[in-house]
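Recall that a protein's primary structure is simply its ordered list of amino acids. Everything else, from secondary elements to tertiary packing, is in principle encoded there. The following example makes that idea concrete.
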Amino acid sequence: MSPITQDLSQLSLLALFAHPDDEGFGSGGTLAMLVARGARVTLVCATNGDVGEISDPSLATPDNLAQVRQEELRQAMAVTGVPDVRFLNYRDSGMVGTEDNNHPDSLHQANPATAIGQLVNIIREVQPEVVITHDPSGGYGHPDHRAVCQHATAAFHQAGVADAYPEQLSQERPVWAPRLLYYVGFPRSNFQRIWQKMVEMDVTPPFASQDIDSVGTPDEDVTTTLDVTAWVDTKIASLNCHRTQIDPNGPFAQLPEEMTREIMGTEYYTLASPGEDLLGAL
């Protein structure tokens, strides 16, 4: 059977990420592929990206950035084909050491049990076979990425336990244990390759450029590599919906197009639960 026409209509997947646009870079091709093959996909975004960049002041202001980024994510998922998009509505925590990190409405300040309970509730409603989320490194160490990884991992294990959040249980929301948990990875060697190319081009690398040896997923932790070349155009079109976050003169935009497309054509995961590697078999 052609890999593009393989029927996955019996598969349900729940994607849990921290900010609008997090879904696109590491798993945008995977999500497009799954939808194209008939899988049922739900996307949950923990924060509204309130303290993200604003590439063009005509697109948003600090006061309405959260609403704008929510709409950008809805538009991006319309391109990808994901109809079920949900927000937990926490405030973006920003990076460690910033005032945003201490904001009482931020995900960083949220009671972990409350956030985990929200995710457990969604898992019991959606009843996914597969859950994907950030890896423990948070990609480049963002505290919201790490928090979502921790909360999603806990929810994955607790959703199937009757003693966990029993007040949620009903006929419509029974205990439900997903089969597989995957962490979305950004291999460290890929970051290093991108940084090296930027240095060669006399382009200043972005975040964490001074600590490149510790950024990203250790290569040895990657268990699953997916070729999503057939969905790169969809992935790029979806990412381009996040207009407030795209700097046309930024360091990533200056990479050669062929390099960007080649990097985006492969996505990486760590199978974080026991079980057969379902994504790896696609």
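The longest helix spans residues 65-80. Residues 222 and 270 are 5 Å apart (CA to CA).
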